[in-house]
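Let's study a protein:

___
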Amino acid sequence: MIFIRVVILAAGVGSRLGHGIPKALVELANGKTIIDQQIENITKITELENIRVVLGYKGHLLEEQYPDLEFIYNHRYAETNTSKSLLIGLNGIDDDVIWMNGDVVFDPQILQMIMETPYKNLICVDNKKVGEEEVKYSLNNGGFIKELSKTVSNPLGEAVGINRIGRNTLPQFIQALKECDDQDYFERGVEILIERGEKFKPLNIGERFCVEVDFPEDLKEAKRYFRETHR
């Protein structure tokens, strides 16, 4: 098993889904939650103690249910966005890091793809769809990420919310996240690095399943996938 740190961002309120609990705790089936599915996938590539979860809204509920995980709080979760949660989540880490949003339900093969790819700085993308509300991307002539935001013109696909940063780039990334505005998504930190000459490679997930659970229809899709893969 390869050593790598994993940071899960689970501080948000999840108001669009409207369950009144952290989205990571939303049930998929048979009492299993979104974060259960994430932990199951992550522990195929690294140890449980390498997982850190950034908490905010009703974070005590996650602490109570998962005492073996490492938790860190974004106490300003109500007035900040994922750039600041990730900044807190990366504090003190000096390794390659995979980070993901706490509402992503995904095929575990995506993590295997990440581990097998020689590029350290990766943005996982899905070229099958381009949602209006989703973070989208474009490429430069060298095949690296050029733009990464919700307002990309002529996008090639959308980012799925699972990414990797190499240890050597981590200090610069932390600095870029510090420079982000409170309401910026972490993708703005990636864009700042790109503007400074760093390279991020897109990793297309192809036919592999991945959905960020923002709306009830996303949850329906995630539940269907989970039931099909946990018979």
The mean pLDDT is 95. The radius of gyration is 16 Å.
